[in-house]
Specification:
Blueprint (H helix, E strand, L loop, with lengths): L10 H14 L19 H27 L3 E3 L7 H4 L9 H25 L2 H22 L1 E3 L14 E3 H16 L22 H18 L5 H14 L8 E3 L13 H9 L6 E3 L1 H9 L5 H4 E2 L21 H6 L2 E2 L7 E4 L1 H15 L4 H16 L6 H4 L13 H15 L5 H11 L39 H6 L19
Antiparallel strand pairs: 1-5, 2-3, 4-8, 6-7
Amino acid sequence: MKKKFLYKSTLVLSVAALLTTTACQDFLDVNKDPSNPEVGQGQPVSVFPAAVASTAGTAGAQYAILGGIWSQYWTQSATANQFKDIDAYNLTASSLNNTFDEVYSGALNDYQFVIKKSEASGDWFYFLAGTVMKAYTLQIMADLYDKVPYSEAFQGLDNLTPKYDDGDKVYAGLIAELDNALSKDFTAATNSTPGTRDIVFGGKVDSWKRFANTLKLKMYLRMINAKPTEALAGIQKLYTDNVGFLTTDAAMGAGNFQDAPDKSNPLYEYNNRRLNTTTNLRASTTFMSWLKANNDPRIASVYKFGTGATTYSSLDQGDFNNLQSTAVRNAISIANTTPLAPVHFISTAESYFLQAEAIERLTPGAATAKAAYDAGVKAAFAQYSLDGSSFIAAGGKYEYPVAGSFEQKLEAIITQKWASMAGSHALEAYFEKNRTGYPKTSTVYSNNVAYIPGQFVYPKEGVTQGLFAKRLIFSDRDRQRNPNVPAMVSLTTKVWWDVK
């Protein structure tokens, strides 16, 4: 595909252009292939921020809404209809075509350009940063679609019909790419020192190394049930390599956004500025009931009052045809999206929760698992400038079950991870639910007196006969131009690592 590259002078303009493309335009025609755009001209210092903005604009907007609804933080309002198909598991092969195209023709192509250009010049800083963000973005796509273009992608006009690789092969390739990037000489004189032009870490190469290591940890844990021997060996090596894991957020931070049209957080921009209503995303009973049951103060950060309300209330998942009065439906609490919120790639809290699980798998019962879990809970509260210390203290609501079984510990870790991811990071919570089964799934609907707060329910208006969504359906637009797109599969077909 031929694509004109627009390298914006500011990051916020890149985000604005991305959102215009993905939310409002059908910008690819049948003669263009997003898996193989033509590499444009530019330099890593200008291309890389635009690529990060592209990842943030998809993972932090459309995919965040998908993840937020499927992770049952939010449900479609009964007074609007924008996201009914997501809530009801009624997506088709065309539902997210624009987002798929933007990921490949935007972010991934740009990362590949950065990698190729920086390798040629020996600029290992951008080689590492480009590789990490490529791996992060492609891992999301592999988890969503199971099979994606990878080994034959990004070849420009030399290959317009790349094959779709199996998800486990994509994982193996990405981990190998990360290992290669980490092996480079970061003291070489040819390395860039981008400073604030690195919009993720401000030019700190050690932070990029930890991001790479933490991403590998996430990928190994994602495959733990499908390939346990390989995953455990990989996790062990991460600890012996002694690179370390993230202790700060890997994110497109609040400093990159402004409270102005086309310049704000992509979820806020898409959901609050671009649509004709700001109340599509209502509080789901699933998450709100859990917050209320635990008297968790994060409720005031995650949700805001509905019209005329002075208390928090929720809608049962998928009950968007609710026939209560308009006043009652309007009073239901709303997702509290904000214009300056960061888009997390891997948050500090997620890093600690990943470490807690890894430690329990490598050295069951080690005190460091509790320490990592406690640090994760504190970091999750700190995202909202709150103190979670009392919750993890002895007798606290979220005290780590030191004497519990492995499954009890895993449930505690994943439940707290779920609680930490409401917002632009919601897609990861959905993946973790599919991998681990936590939070548990209820045997009754959330309006039943026997319902246990926080357990997932099948959406009331779901169309998949009680089966939960496990993936996305292959893009029909890509099918029109690429005969290698795999045969159609249902939304409820599990991806390769979902075997528990």
